[in-house]
Amino acid sequence: xxxTILGRxxxxxxxxxxxxxxxxxxxxWLCVTFGVAFGxxxxxxxxxxxxxxxxxxxxxxxxxxxLGAVVAxxxxxxxxxxxxxxxGSIHLPAFLHRHPKPMTPRRQRxxxxxxxxxxxxxxxxxxxxxxPGWMFGTYSVSSVVGMPPFMAMVVMAxxxxxxxxxxxxxxxxxxxxxxxxxxxxxxxxxGWLL
Length: 194
Description:
This protein has 8 helices and no strands. By secondary structure, it is an all-alpha fold. Helix 2 crosses helix 8 (164-193) and helix 5 packs across helix 6. It is elongated and about 60 Å long.
């Protein structure tokens, strides 16, 4: 067969998304990656970054662009729950609601100590509601870099009622860039060092 668009890629040419469709390991790793990424979106103690780096280093057959797309999709699906909860669209179970407790001296000291932090959060929320462009820019940077923490920005996006289409599109693109670069980094560094 000749090397046309519909034919195979020329010898020595590795397409970014080229993998053997008959290889069940690649599909299996992508499914496991989806699960880990979704779990890490819900439970912030699970590090999907370490998982992606380890997988990309150990399984070079998994295409890095596909790996980035799977992780970005799973992350945004998981973060969607936090977004809806902050927006007030999902009613949380009763055990997650705070019940008023009597003010003890210890609790009063805690209130005084955390007043600056609470005032700062309210100030940022007010600023985000009045200036949607500022929220958009901060959320965009956070989705790629991770600073400010993406989990906090997801909750803030829900609190200020960011449009769902904006939330998903910006977050998906930013997460895709982040995790695709992360998945490509072991091969890049191996190529530079060897």
